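I have been asked to look over a protein record a colleague put together. Alongside the sequence sits a line of tokens, each denoting a local backbone shape. Please read both lines and tell me whether the tokens look consistent with the sequence. I do not need a full report, just your reasoning and any doubts. I have pasted the whole thing underneath without changing anything.
>
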Amino acid sequence: MKLIYLSQELDTTKEHELLTDSEFGFKVDIKMTEESWYKIKEDTAYNCTEVHHLWSENYMGGASIAFESDIHRTGFTRRIDDIECVTIELASKLYDSY
């Protein structure tokens, strides 16, 4: 899995808790592997305020990454072995939905 934060590729063998207090949070593009059981292979989470890589070492049987939005008061978690790449950049506006 690749983890790209503000144009820099991060070491995915280490835990990363990426937070922002910017007005609009992060825009996070998530590309799933072809082998992933998720039907939607590319998705975007808007106005994230936290991305926590290696949030859990045993989420549904494997390591995970969590996406949270204090702005929209929601979030979700995915196993990292289902993900090909996560690209995090600053959001430029408030989106209607997460």
Observations:
- DSSP finds no helices and nine strands in the chain.
- The longest strand covers residues 83-90.
